[in-house]
Amino acid sequence: MSEVILYACASALLCGLVPSFMKTGVRRAAPSVAAALYATVAFLFAFGAAAISGTLGSLLHIANAALLNLALDGLLDALVWLCLFTALSTGGVNRVMPIHNLAAAGAIGLTALLSHGRVGVWRLCCIVLLLLGTVLMESRQRKERGYQWLLFSCLALAAAAAQIVYEARCLPDVPGSVQRLLATMTAMVLLWCLSAAGKSLNGIKKLQLEDWLFLLLAGVAAGLAGLCDTAAERMGDSSYLLPISCCAFPLMMLFARIFHKEKMPGAAVIGLLLAVFGMFGMLLNV
């Protein structure tokens, strides 16, 4: 049990670091190039995880229709990462991530819409807490440059919510490590092709060592967080994993304060607490 808690805490800590690393790395890089580098690191971690688990051989037995579904999952991955890097290139972590954090609530609403179902009272209250917390976090923040960050934050939210629903409904019955491998490979290829088509690759020469380092660190932190989650789940008792994962969100705000000097007024702190309570409440209802 103690090892499960340790892995869960490590995952939350690493996830909290990722947005600050992403923002630092994208300062001088084109968002498409930054996302492509991030996807490359994610692919390497996914390949390593599939190799260690011994599931690479199952790639030869996946039907064409299943491959198409996995490729579409990779397309959503690419869209989420591209939108996040674009939003973070002009907006602060404590403005972009609260919007992206609504993905779970968006997925619940989308599922209810597609299945013509109803959202339970408990989940509805949790969603209201999340929305209210996000509004409070956004309403008292300093102004950013333009509204590009808001547009792409909302696009990242929509893509992430759609991906949650798509993965729950449409992904084939293949090992999870293989799913991630093919999805990240598709995202990597798409993002590098987009960078080449947009001539963003020409700007790679302008990147400094610090930019490369933090983009790689963002991918490594996310990859290690995924490995920690997998290790905790394999130990059987993962009941501690999801509640502790809620800590990743306030950690994102803390690291934004440390790395980027992003301040949060009192109303935003209250909003952060409400959002965390909403997240935790939804997990209790799973």
Q: Could you list some keywords that capture this structure?
A:
single chain; 286 residues; mainly alpha; 12 helices; 77% helix
Instruction: State Rg.
Output: 19 Å
Question: What percentage of residues falls in helices of 4 or more residues?
Answer: over 70%
The geometry reads as: globular
| Number of helical regions | 12
Kindly state the mean pLDDT as a whole number? 87
Class of secondary structure makeup: mainly alpha
Q: What fraction of residues sit in β-strands?
A: under 5%
Low-confidence stretches: none
DSSP, total strands? 0
User: What sequence of helices (H) and strands (E) makes up the elements?
Assistant: HHHHHHHHHHHH
Distance between the termini: 21 Å
Taking the sheet with the most strands, its summary is: none
Strand and helix map with partners:
Blueprint: H1 2-25, H2 31-53, H3 64-90, H4 93-100, H5 103-115, H6 121-139, H7 148-169, H8 176-197, H9 209-234, H10 241-245, H11 248-260, H12 266-284
